[in-house]
Amino acid sequence: MGKIEVLHRIIFILAWAALLASCSSSKQHNAWKLKWSDEFDYTGLPDSTKWDYDVGGHGWGNNELQYYTRADTNNAVVRNGRLLITLRKQLKDTNHYTSARLISKHKGDWLYGRIEVKAKLPAGKGVWPAIWMLPTDWAYGGWPESGEIDIMEHVGFMPDSVFSSVHTQAFNHVIRTQKTKGLFYDDVYTNFHVYAIEWSADRIDFFVDDKNFFRFVNTRKGFTEWPFDKRFHLLVNIAFGGNWGGAKGVDSGITAASMEVDYVRVYQK
After folding, report:
1. Is the CB of residue 87 less than 8 Å from the CB of residue 129?
2. 5 flagged as catalytic
3. How far apart are CA 246 and CA 250, in angstroms?
4. Nearest Cα residue to 195 out of 117, 260, 83, 99
5. Do residues 211 and 236 make contact, with C-beta atoms less than 8 angstroms apart?
6. Which of 145, 148, 198, 260 is flagged as catalytic?
7. Is 116 a catalytic residue?
8. Is residue 2 very low, low, confident or very high in pLDDT (cuts 50, 70, 90)?
9. pTM here?
10. Among residues 153, 198, 225, 260, which one is catalytic?
11. Contact (Cβ atoms closer than 8 angstroms) between residue 160 and residue 186
């Protein structure tokens, strides 16, 4: 067999493999229908028909150091096709840092589906970005009874890792029973990754770039273990310091750190 023929055969095999991969990916997502999204194809403040804000600087239950502002382009702005959430060293009330916590509550609330966010994370000791979900109606009571779904959390003192978790009355970090798993990624500051869940009545699967690395299964033992049969909404934010983010201290030299979000998409079957 000549070199040219071998080369043609290699090209054919590679092309065929790419086609199969494309078909597989297409089949994987074919059952999902896009129900809600923000592609950030505009400029200025985040779309007010899709996003609201949590506001304040009271520590947020975790002794965090930032003040979350409302509709302030210093902390949340869309430009060049991306949402930028920025932590800044800036005095606000008694807080020495400002940031933003965007929420889709009452503008995007879902029961089951595939929720995915493509993002690049901020670096720095003390920085604590998160993509997560809380119950809209708190039907089973306050936290943690009504549940929490952490699609992605990252802490700056562990620059090579991202984490996914669930919290319920039976499983939560206060009593050290939370269900969680970490994944090593050494380029979360330089490259975008797709952080996602696929949530059904039976389980929640967690993904990074379509790699299913963690699964939480409905035990059928009631809401104390599975409160995830009610609608939830999305939150995207950067905290600073706090019980986990500041567990190894904070870098007081940080003046600004941004999380870039390329898109947010919600699919249902």
Report:
1. no
2. no
3. 6
4. 117
5. no
6. 148
7. no
8. low
9. 0.89
10. 153
11. yes
